[in-house]
Structures are given as structure tokens and as C-alpha cells.
Amino acid sequence: MAASPPGQPHLHTLYAEHHDWLQAWLRNKLGCLFTAQDLAQDTFLRLVVRPRELDAGQNPRAYLTTIAKGLVVDHWRRAEIERVWVAAMLERPEATQPSAEHQAIVLETLVEVDRILATLADKPRQAFLLAQLHELTYAEIGVRLGVSERMVKKYMAQAMLHCLAAGANFRAALG
Amino acid sequence: MSMQRRHEQEIPYATLVQAAEWFAVFRSGRVEDEERRRWQDWLAADAGHRQAWARVEAISDGVAIAREAPQAASAALHAASQLGYRVQRRKLLKAMALAAVTVGAGWQVARQDSVQALMAGLGASHRTGVGESRQAVLADGTRLWLDTDTVLDARYDDSQRLLVLHQGVILVETHADDVYPARPLIVRSRQGAMRALGTRFAVRQFDGHTRLDVSEGRVEITPLEAAASARVVAAGEQTSFTRHAIAASGALDPARQAWTQGMLIAQDMPLAQFLAELSRYRPGHLGCDPAIAGLRVVGAFPLRDTGQALAMLAAALPVRVRFTLPWWVSVAPK
Predict the structure, then answer these.
(1) pLDDT tens sequence across A13-42
(2) CATH of domain B132-255
(3) DSSP B289-319
(4) Residue B12 to chain A, least CA–CA distance (Å)
(5) Would an 8 Å CB–CB cutoff place A104 in contact with chain B?
(6) A96 touches chain B (CB under 8 A)
(7) For chain B, where do the domains classified as CATH 3.55.50.30 start and end?
(8) Partners of residue A138 in chain B, C-beta under 8 Å
(9) ipTM of the predicted structure?
(10) Which domains can be identified in chain A, with CATH numbers?
(11) In this structure, what are the phi and psi dihedrals at residue B257, rounded to the nearest 5 degrees?
């Protein structure tokens, strides 16, 4: 019974008019129909979750491709993480390899960490990973990055704030 | 995304800043007893602090899962960061800015449903993003203005016209009901109900209280847990109430409704308060050096371009605006 917020019913039209075009555009970029289907769907999902970003005056296809490009980048980054991680696990002696399920959980976590930290400046990002992943002390990190311990502490706060503000959830839930 | 999830996620930005700072203190491995006590006091002071700290721990523990193979994890992250798309991605994310604070959980939920199902459920609420304000006309002709970062549910049924304000600010201009007998129009905040008696009024949801400004007609307030103390507020008056009590009414400040025109009007407003108001219209942090917090601000500032508002501020007062990051701005003495 409530009036719909302005701009939103409009999503149906957007979907009907541009979905096939977007999927073809993605397929051309990715060379894979299935991934193109997934990412086209994800693009519209993102529009639903963040409807306020689409202004009435904007060219819808330009806007859709902006979102889709971001998702393509995510896709490639994810593939790269998977490639390197899986290769490293395969190098381990079989007895010390974590279970497939556990590996998948770590992989999901890494993808999320990458997604969140990609927009953080380089030094805070490195400081955070050195501390949290490699368990180095602030003094050790300071030496590596060529900054004072005080600065490392600042970087740590900055990185954590970044994660908090981005709604990070590294406890990867599977399925 | 469901309204409920969005609600659980809400932690003031200032609290996130404090939680992140405490994280950096603890991670250093050198914490004095005195500092630990201050941290405990901080935790004890507010449920929001504890919630923020729980998220800090979840993030910290979450990363720790990759510690069993730090080299492989680092190599994988490094490889991804070398793909050369960071700049482009950063631009995109900058545009999305910190609106993502409340989206994280919603995004996960959203992925599990089909696009169509989500679209069908959208009509249930009205919302504005940070920096956005908008007008809406409800089914009965009642007009509504939503200020920045506002979430509202309009739930009309046979017996009442109910507007549930989850957060933010609304201005309501009621319209005679199109149904006979007329249904009451009620705005519900977290602290109680406001029943319109033919009227134009604004409601702002604060953390622990609700403020009501009545420009025309009258509005009856019933606090959630003190129905007996219900009271009518007349045109030209404003008041605040909690779940238990209503404050004495004062004179209405018309400048407070300037947001419907996209303006923030300051009449001798302390700088700290001015920046707190302005920060509601921008994502991220907008800090004020305590040394200049008491400076007085006068003028009309555009809310749709807060960068312009800050530039005007710097031109009018002996202050300097520092953009450390696009979303981290501090105002300091010149």
C-alpha cells in the first residue's frame, strides 16, 4: 500500500531492456557464457541493493557497465587468488594438506580480505597483513616498511577502521 | 536487504574509529594496566562500543584463519593486487564510498534470492542515502520529505496510516484521508508514537530520543513506556521525548526545516555542532579540532554539495579543511 520510492519500479524496465545486451557485453569481455550470465545477474542484484546510486538522468548502459566492470575485476582477482593458493597447497606434502573444505574456507576469506583491502592505501594494507597474517611485531613491521612504530600503530588503526567501515566479515560462510 | 539486518549493523562512525584505535593499542602487545582499565570503561559505557569491539575481534580472528599458510596467503593476495585494476576499482568504490557500511550483510542476504523476488519486496520502505533527500507522496496524498540517511516504513491498513521511522528525519504534511471514517495518521519512532491532528510536522530519530517540531496543527505524543503521560504539542512548538517522558515544549526553530530546501541554516551555531550536522550529509569522518569547536558559524550552506559548504566555511572562518582521505576530513585552526 505504500508508495514506491521514486526511481525503483524502473528496475523492472531496466532489467527487461538491458539484461540481454549486458550479458552479451560481458560474454565478449570474458569469453565465457556461464560467467557472463552470473555477472549479469550480479550486476542487477547490486542495483537492487544500492538503488540510490542510479540517478534518473544517467545513461543506464553506461552505469550498468561501470558496475559490471567492477564485477569483472572481482572475478579476475578471485581467479588469481584461487590459482596461487591452490598451487601453493598442492606443493605441500599430501599429509599436511588441509581438507578441501578447509581450503575452501580459507580461500573465501582471502577473497574477502582482498576485496576489502584493495581500496586501502598500500602501507596500511601491508602493515595489517604483516601483523595479522605473519604475526610480526610493530617494530618488525616498522623496519620492513621503513616507518616508525608509532606510524605502524596508526596504519593498524586505519586498516581496522577501513575493514569496519566496509562491513568486512572475514568469517567466511560457505554455501 | 531486510530492515532488521540493517538495524543490527548500525554503529556510529565515531565508535568504529574508537574501536579501531583500541585494536591498534592491543595489537601492539604492550598495554599498560591504566590503558586496559580505560578500555574496560569504554566497553562498559555503551552497548554500541561492545558491538563494535565484537566486530573488531571477528575481523581479527577471521584473517587469522589464513595463518597456517601465511606465505601462500600473502602470495595469493599479492598476485591479485598486481592485476593492475586497483586504480579503476578504487574509483568505483570511492563512488560507493562508505554507504557500504550497512550493505555488507545485506549483500550476502540478497545474493541468495532472485532479482525478481527482491524487486517485489522493495516497495515496503522509503530510504535515502547519505547526502540525499527526497520527497514522496503516499497513497492517501500525504506528503513526505525524507532527509539524509533516513529509513521509513509506510504501513497503511484499514485501521490506521502508520509511518515507522527507523532512522533519520522526516517532515510530514498530512492530507485528509481518502477512506471514511478517516484513519488516524501515526508516526512511530523508537521512543513512542506521534498522532497527527491535522498538520505539518517534522520528526528526527536520535540515538536515545525523538525530537518533534510542529509547524501547523497539533500532534499528540505517547511515549512507548509511559502512555499515561501522553501530551499534545501545538503549532510553533518543539519538544523531545524518550520512551519514558516528554520534555517541556520550547519555541520552534524554523531554520531547522531548511533541509527540505537543501540548505543548512546556521544562526550563531557552534562550529562543532555545525560540523556534526554537516557530517550527516557526507559519508565518513568529519572531525573538529577542540581548539576551534566554539567558533560561531552564521550563514546558509548547501547540503547537496558538502564540499562546497566546507569551502565556504574555510572562507568565512579562520579554519583550514584537511582532506586526509576522501572520507576522512578534519577542520583545524588556520
Answers:
(1) 788 888 899 999 999 888 888 788 888 888
(2) 2.60.120.1440
(3) -GGGTT-EEEEEEESS-HHHHHHHHHHHSSE
(4) 10
(5) no
(6) no
(7) 262-333
(8) 27-29
(9) 0.77
(10) 9-97 (1.10.1740), 100-175 (1.10.10.10)
(11) -100, 10
